[in-house]
Amino acid sequence: MTGASSGIGAATAELLSRQGWRVVLVARRADRLEQLARRLGEAVAVPADLTAADAPERVREAVGDGELGLLVNNAGAEWRLAFGEGGYDNVRRTMEVNFDAVVRLTEALLPTLRASAPSSIVNVSSVAGRVGRPKNGAYAASKFALAGWSESLGIEEEAHRVHVGVVLPGFISTEGFPHDRLRANARTRWVVSTPQKVAEAIVAAGPGGRREVYVPRFYGLVPKLRHLVPGLTRRTLGAGRI
Ligand SMILES: NC(=O)c1ccc[n+]([C@@H]2O[C@H](COP(=O)([O-])OP(=O)(O)OC[C@H]3O[C@@H](n4cnc5c(N)ncnc54)[C@H](OP(=O)(O)O)[C@@H]3O)[C@@H](O)[C@H]2O)c1
Fold it and tell me: Structural domain boundaries of the chain?
């Protein structure tokens, strides 16, 4: 479980642990991971910056030669900058965390997942992996890339009985993505959901066998609207109302 030190990752680790999984917790903040591991009981903390060259191998060593039933690639970050402000540097650092690190960790663990089949990979993309908004081009690029790559990987790995699911959350209130403005306004509060809802979606997209889960479900309308009424969708997103 990557990104287990807060938000969606911590909530998912708790849910998986309650369901009887022995969870390997990965993120940079060791104190948070160790605290969570103690609370969960059987969990193992692996502090690592997933963009570091040796991170995939360190996680693979922690998993060992035993069974690996599920890999959840959830760690991610966003730096909200227009391309004119953040340029390629912002695109690169975002891709490094949200896409490259996922691909590298998956590569390191795929042999173990195949050997443990039937097993699953769940990649946490975003509704931003289906539609672009101002000031999130770098993030959207990384999440579009993740969704596309996951779709191909899922078809390829069918033969090896490694299921690949994609979870696409909308606005979820967490440390990294607080959505204070949306939550402060009574008219927009309803669009913001909780990490626990995403945790349930991750289970549905992994062991539950779903290929694609929007959470909350109504966010599945966003990519449909983008195709059906592109002008309206663009004006709504562009105006920064949501
Ligand atoms: N919240 C939303 O509205 C929303 C919507 C759509 C998608 N998502 C996606 O959901 C995932 C989880 O986000 P969240 O909302 O739960 O935010 P969060 O509370 O900020 O959690 C992000 C997690 O990623 C870890 N992380 C970040 N960079 C890392 C790195 N270089 N190496 C290792 N771990 C790293 C963080 O841990 P450390 O800081 O301890 O390393 C933290 O555990 C992300 O992929 C995000 O893009 C979130």
Answer: 7-238
List residues with catalytic annotation: 139
6 forms beta bridges with none
CA of 57 to the centre of ligand 1 (A): 21
Cα separation of 196 and 14, whole Å? 9
Q: Ligand 1 center to residue 146 CA distance, Å? A: 14
DSSP annotation of 2 reads B
Nearest-atom index, ligand 1, CA of 173: 1
pLDDT digits (tens, 9 = 90+) for 159-178: 999 999 999 999 999 999 99
Strand partners, 44: 24
Q: Can you identify the CATH homologous superfamily of domain 7-238? A: NAD(P)-binding Rossmann-like Domain (3.40.50.720)
Mutate-to-test residue for ligand 1 from 2, 6, 36, 222, highest number of ligand atoms within 8 A of CB:
6
CA distance 24 to 4: 9
Please say whether the beta carbons of 13 and 33 come within 8 A: no
pTM of structure: 0.97
Predicted local confidence at residue 234, as pLDDT: 87
Locate the ligand 1 atom nearest the alpha carbon of residue 128 and give its number.
Answer: 6
CA 176 to ligand 1 center in whole angstroms? 6
